[in-house]
Each structure stands twice: as structure tokens, then as C-alpha cells.
């Protein structure tokens, strides 16, 4: 046995990596797993976010203001609808690149990432995937450039996790439909030029419609006083017998599979983005505890502090590696919705935990917005809830494991 093991010992000695320093910022060397093009796009997005978004976010959050020109800036960089074909004015990037961009945007603020992901995954994606070529040509180039802003109407005042119970109706009339109902907690709606709205037809089938600002009976009031995602604009969509021409219905999808397909794309980006917010909080906690001295030494010299930093590092490293794996599978056409539920649920929950702990590590200073961490705490409360709550994604995974749906007792 001893002689047989000798070659293995020699091989192990020949492959030791003790001479390589541990990259504490990138424990699994994610950077090495990216292509040169992916790194270039990520770096360009990072430069833009740190230069143009970080300088705005403090005042935007304080005054609950979204700077509309951000959409034009993102469009100029190719960040809107980035995975869609170049023929529509988009970048034609892969899903891994889209995730890397979401990470950089949310490193600054979840509200900015929300605005980008709604435009990309919830508005441009359904028009591309479910629309006609005429609809694609009409809407996608203007949405890609940021000339137009879009929003997505699925959630209703009484129907969040159960969208199948929606009350919004589309009644067939000569030349099109009359749409009536209301949608709530809609990112971008107060400034949107177009809205992808889901409604039930006379027979109960759920269909998607593209509504345009200026249609009679359509209003998009802003929701005031929210304490999360304050740097993005959120509102409602109110529809009172809005006439929608027949050519504005998305013809290539029927049922909840349409909006759920959009949500899966958005949830994928959210999983990446949440890790960006978590990374910011982790780095700030590390820097703060190295600089802050109590009892004659840095806070970071305490075992409890180092354990907290190690816990943050571990969850972020695992979360990013999971995102990258799902991104590669998505690029190969092999990603399943349950995979996305897993990383959305895990990464958002862990990011919120990390932000809360980072806030605590800042002591009293942690509640000051000038340190930025409390803003991430507030934002991640919403991110952990929207586009499928933590518990709803648990039920999606539970159904996959057991074959039993537990969403309601009556089905």
C-alpha cells in the first residue's frame, strides 16, 4: 500500500500551490473563469457605475428621486436588453455578461439595477420572445437606447404571489380590447412610455398587451413614502376601459408561462445583483473595522469581527460561483427555473443577512446614509421579497423535490 501511494504523493507535491497567494477578494478566482470580453464589459460597467451612479445615489435616496437620464446613459453603453440581438440596437451579449453587469449596478444600488432589469427582462424580453416582428421593430430599438422607458404590470393590490387570481380584464371589442384593472408596486411606471400588462380575456386566458402612454384611461401614479429602493421610481398602473389595438397584444404566448418566463430572466439577474450589494457591504465592513480603533487596537483584531468577515466572504464566494454556473447553463440553454429559484432565494437572503451584519459592525455610524450600508439593508428588504418571496421560492423547490405543490390546499 505504501509503495502504491508513492506516485500520488509525488504528484501532489508537484501540484502544490503554496506559492500562490490566496485571493481573499476572489476566493474561487471567478475572474479567471470569465472570457476576455466578459471581463471587458464588466469593467466598463463598473467604471460607469462608480463614476456616474455612485455620485448620484446619496441624494437620490434621500429625496426619493430617480434621474431619468440614467436610462439614456445605460442605453448608450448597451446595458439595456443586452442579451437581445444587435439588429434591434442591443448588444447581443450572453447571460453571464448580463449577470456581471447586474452585479456592478447593484453594488451601487438595488434601485438602479431594478430599473435596468425591468427594462431588459420584463419589457424587452417579452416583446422579443412573444411579440411580432413589427412589435420588435417598433419598440426594441427605442427601449434599447433608453429613449423609451418600459414597465411590467403583473402584481395587483390583492394578488402578489398568486398572479393567476388577477382581476385585470381585457374585453374584446371591435379592433382590439378594452383593458380595465390596476397593477401595484410597478418599477418605472410613473416615467414609463410603454407598459407590458398581463390581463385575463373573456374566457379566462391570460395574455400580454403593450400599452402606450397617452392611451385614454391609462394613468401611472407614483407611490410615495417607500423606505426601500428610493433611488428608483415605483408606482401603479391604473386602467379604466383603456382601448388597446389588436396589434398590441403579444400573440405568441398564453397563460402564466408568459410572465413567468420574464420573471425567470429577471430573477437570474437579481441573484447576481444581490451579490454585488453584499460585496459592497462586506468590503465596507472590512475597511471600517480595520480603520476603527477601540481599546487601543483595530476592531478587526477581534475574533468575532474576523468570524463575521469570514462568514460574509464564504457566502459571497459560494453565491457568485452558483450564479456563474447557472449563467453558463443559461447560455447553453440548459438552465431550469428551479435553478434560478435556488440562487434567487439563497443569494437575496444571504445578501440581506450580510448587509444587516455589516450595519451592526459599523456601530452607531451604520445608520448614517453617508456610509451607504443602511441603504443596502433597506433595499435588500424589498429585493428579498419581490419577484418571488423567499418562501415562495422554497415552495417551488419543494414541489420539484416532492412532486407536491404546497401553494394552496385547494389544488
Q: How would a crystallographer describe the biggest sheet?
A: 4 strands, antiparallel
Low-confidence spans: pLDDT under 50, at least 5 residues?
A: none
End-to-end separation in angstroms reads 60 Å
- Write down the secondary-structure element order: HHHHHHEEEEEEEHEEHHHH
Shape: globular
- The number of helical runs is 11
**Helical content, roughly?**
40-55%
CATH fold description of the largest domain: Butyryl-CoA Dehydrogenase, subunit A, domain 3
Mean pLDDT: 94
CATH evolutionary superfamily of the largest domain: Butyryl-CoA Dehydrogenase, subunit A, domain 3
Radius of gyration: 23 Å
Mind telling me which CATH architecture of the largest domain this is? Answer: Up-down Bundle
Please write the CATH class name of the largest domain.
Answer: Mainly Alpha
Keywords:
Butyryl-Coa Dehydrogenase, subunit A, domain 1, four-stranded antiparallel sheet, alpha+beta, three-stranded mixed sheet, Butyryl-CoA Dehydrogenase, subunit A, domain 3, 411 residues
How would you characterize the overall build of this protein?
The protein has 411 residues and is α+β, with helices and mostly antiparallel strands. Helices cover 51% and strands 13% of the residues. The protein has 11 helices and 9 strands. It has helices at residues 2-14, 36-63, 69-76, 95-108, 110-130, 133-145, 257-291, 303-331, 337-361, 373-383, 390-402; strands spanning 150-153, 169-173, 176-187, 194-200, 206-212, 218-219, 234-245, 293-294, 297-298. It has a 4-stranded antiparallel sheet with strand order 2-3-7-6, with helices on one face. A 3-stranded mixed sheet has the order 1-4-5, with helices on one face. The radius of gyration is 23 Å and the shape is globular. The model has no long low-confidence stretch (mean pLDDT 94).
Amino acid at each position: 500500500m505504501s509503495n502504491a501511494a508513492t506516485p500520488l504523493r509525488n504528484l501532489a507535491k508537484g501540484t502544490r500551490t503554496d506559492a500562490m497567494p490566496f485571493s481573499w477578494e476572489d476566493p474561487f478566482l471567478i475572474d479567471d473563469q470569465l472570457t476576455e470580453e466578459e471581463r471587458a464589459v464588466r469593467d466598463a460597467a463598473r467604471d460607469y457605475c462608480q463614476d456616474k451612479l455612485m455620485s448620484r445615489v446619496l441624494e437620490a435616496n434621500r429625496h426619493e428621486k430617480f434621474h431619468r437620464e440614467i436610462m439614456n446613459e445605460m442605453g448608450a453603453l448597451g446595458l439595456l436588453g443586452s442579451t437581445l440581438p444587435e439588429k434591434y440596437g442591443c448588444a447581443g451579449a450572453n447571460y453571464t455578461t448580463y449577470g456581471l453587469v447586474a452585479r456592478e449596478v447593484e453594488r451601487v444600488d438595488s434601485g438602479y439595477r431594478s430599473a435596468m432589469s425591468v427594462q431588459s427582462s420584463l419589457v424587452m424580453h417579452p416583446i422579443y420572445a412573444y411579440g411580432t416582428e413589427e412589435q420588435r421593430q417598433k419598440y426594441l430599438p427605442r427601449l434599447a437606447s433608453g429613449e423609451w422607458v418600459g414597465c411590467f404590470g403583473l402584481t395587483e393590490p390583492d394578488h402578489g404571489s398568486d398572479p393567476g387570481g388577477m382581476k385585470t380584464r381585457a374585453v374584446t371589442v371591435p379592433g382590439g380590447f378594452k383593458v380595465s384593472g390596476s397593477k401595484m408596486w410597478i418599477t418605472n411606471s410613473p416615467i414609463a412610455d410603454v407598459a407590458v400588462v398581463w390581463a385575463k380575456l373573456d374566457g379566462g386566458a391570460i395574455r400580454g398587451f403593450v400599452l402606450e402612454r397617452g392611451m385614454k384611461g391609462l394613468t401611472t401614479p407614483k407611490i410615495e413614502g417607500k423606505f426601500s429602493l428610493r433611488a428608483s421610481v415605483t408606482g401603479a398602473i391604473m386602467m379604466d376601459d383603456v382601448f388597446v389595438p389588436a396589434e398590441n397584444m403579444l400573440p405568441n404566448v398564453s397563460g402564466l408561462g408568459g410572465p413567468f418566463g420574464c420573471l425567470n430572466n429577471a430573477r437570474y439577474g437579481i441573484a447576481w445583483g444581490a451579490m454585488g450589494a453584499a460585496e459592497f457591504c462586506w468590503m465596507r465592513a472590512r475597511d471600517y473595522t480595520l480603520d476603527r480603533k477601540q481599546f487601543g487596537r483595530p476592531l478587526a483584531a477581534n475574533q468575532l469581527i474576523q468570524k463575521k468577515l469570514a462568514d460574509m466572504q464564504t457566502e459571497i464566494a459560494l453565491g457568485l460561483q452558483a450564479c456563474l454556473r447557472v449563467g453558463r447553463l443559461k447560455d447553453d440553454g440548459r438552465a431550469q427555473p428551479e435553478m434560478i429559484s435556488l440562487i434567487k432565494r439563497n443569494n437575496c437572503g444571504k445578501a440581506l443577512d450580510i448587509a444587516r451584519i455589516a450595519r451592526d459592525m459599523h456601530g452607531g455610524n451604520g445608520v448614517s446614509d453617508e456610509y451607504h450600508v443602511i441603504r443596502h439593508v433597506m433595499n435588500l428588504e424589498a429585493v428579498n421579497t419581490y419577484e418571488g418571496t423567499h418562501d415562495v421560492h422554497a415552495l417551488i423547490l419543494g414541489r420539484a423535490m416532492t412532486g407536491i405543490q404546497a401553494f394552496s390546499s385547494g389544488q
